[in-house]
Amino acid sequence: MTVLKDNIHKPQQQGVVLVISMILLLVMTSLVLASVSSTRNEERMSGATRDMNASFQAAEAALLDGENYLASAILPPFNGTNGLYQASTTGEDLYEDTASWDWATDCVTYSGATISGVITQPCYYIEELNVVLTGGTTGGGSITIGDGSAPSVTAFYRVTARGVGVSPNSETILQSVFKR
Description:
alpha+beta
């Protein structure tokens, strides 16, 4: 009777390959998940930047529209309608004080071509600031310059514009002071 000695001397597997492959699989899965998370964050940042840029560009267009309106020859009275206001007496900016951007009478909608890619079209309002007289003296109820001519009158206006981007969460408010 012959006994096969090969079966007796055959080494038994310990499962080391299985353990090593499981560890490598775990490491590769961790790397893939980190990569996916990083890509998702970069996409969010890119979208937020695009949204912020759209709201800024819309607000800037409305601001220039308001300044162009002020450059017109004759201005109507600043009586609190149609986006034309007197300066706030509380010391706060009007957009923080009383104006609501949702009311059509509180702001003027941008009059240029429709801006695509924004949730609402931008709008602006204008505040008439105090008038500055230069080169005159007061006396006897009238203001005159030393040579008898009238002083120059300089009017200042504050234009406040609001733009909203692709989502309602991005909003840009810009202001400029216009000398006329």
